[in-house]
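User: Hi! I'm a student and our assignment asks us to look at how structure tokens line up with a sequence. Could you show me two examples?

Assistant: Happy to help. In each example below, the sequence comes first and the structure tokens follow. Example one:
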Amino acid sequence: MDAERSSKTGDYERHYPSFLKLCLLNLGRLACLALILGPQFGQADQQTTATHPLPVANQGGHSRAPAQVFKSLLPQIKEKTKVPVFLPSDLPQPIGKAKNSVAGDLQTDKYEISLYYELGIGDAGFAAFFTGQADAKYRPEELPNVKEVKLARGAKGFFRPVSCGGSCAPANLWWMEGGVLYQIQLKLSPTTSELDQETGIIAVANSAITAGPR
């Protein structure tokens, strides 16, 4: 019996160094493979987190028509204001799902339009805001935390992304046209990248600018 145990012990001692060498060799191969494939895995992760422009909802029926949500208000607005009205044909999602439009402060030198997903629930139902004001008391480049951006037809815009404190303020874009200060607000998720916010709100402004006054 002792001889048998001694024989088995000898077998383990003979095979163990070979087994250890094999393990170390395989670990070395895995480490090399990780080093080779590591950059590719990094690139794949970067592609996964890359920004994606906000999808645009065309509500206008054709390229120059204002989005459907504005149409019921246009006669009322144009009756009360002398300011050229710039409204987009296309709205990004989720703004394109807003079905309610409300005219705000309508004056000879000013108009305001708010879009809502649902009325009667305050800011929770708010989607977007559009305004034009002649003889504004400030210029957009004087505003804090804005970034200059290029708009259609050589217009110069000033963009401010969503900002959150106690609550979140919408993304904003301002530009001047014929002495009138125009502003667009879009209620976007704070998790939307700043680049996607900028791309989306510029597309809305360009849609309004290229269509011309309504």
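Example two works the same way, sequence first and then tokens:
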Amino acid sequence: MLFASGAASCVLLVSPTSGGAHCGFRGADTACGACLKERCQSAIDAICLDDPAGVLTVLEQCAAAGDDACARLPSSPVATCTTTSCAGFCSPKSGTSTTRCEESFLAPGLACSCQTEGAATELDCATRTFPRARCCAPAGWPGAALRCACDAVACVSTTAGCICTLTDNLVSDTSAECKRTPETHCCAIEERCECRQRACSGAEKEYDACNAAALHCPPGTTEVASCSSRR
């Protein structure tokens, strides 16, 4: 069953299986559109019949092309969801991809990795699209049999304070920072940072907080802005 919406080509679709109403939009069959449909559908549904800011018109351009229209979405929950959950798919791209990049199976939207073997993909695996991640490449990247990873900051509480690491196994509400207190020191070395009562020692460096700024790539890798490669 279809109901016309306020946008030119968006329609409200009533699912025969769930009975729920969902806003359909042009471009839903692209990689960007599929991500928006999976992760941002509730925000899209909320404005399907009342969209005075014209969000859905720009959203359709974004979904269809995955280009700079995504950055022009009017301020809204849809724009926020697109940026935080689908930026890797919905971002401007130029040239032809030479890497097979995939989101982490355990942390979609938060971490990703790339290889040069296999069919190339359009996912933009970079710190600009996965903002809580650091991208680390081995020497010789991009090269055969190598893997470049953009792993995300994940912080967990401990009895002494907290520990933050770079990982591809986390959920969106995992904390990305823990701060020093008057009783603790935040000590970092490579991809690990710990806030604890014991003072920093050896090669550890002290920070005001454990977060992305305190974490660095593991040995044998170098920080890069993007693991994706295009020509």
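Here is something you could point out in your write-up. Confidence is low (pLDDT under 50) at residues 1-8, 13-19.
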